[in-house]
Amino acid sequence: MRYLATLWFWLVFLSTAPFCTAIGALIWLVTWPFDRNRNALHAFVCGWCHVLYLSWPGWRVRIEGREHLPPGPSVLVANHQSASDILASMGLNHPFKFVAKEAVFRTPCVGWLMQLMEYIPVKRGHPQAMERMLEDCRGWLRRGVAVFIYPEGTYARTREPLPFKRGAFQLAIAEQVPVVPVVIEGTTDVIAGDGPLMGASARVRVRVLPPVLAQALGEDPVELAGRVRDMHLEALGLSAKQGEAPEQRVA
Question: Is the pLDDT of residue 124 over 90?
Answer without folding.
Answer: no
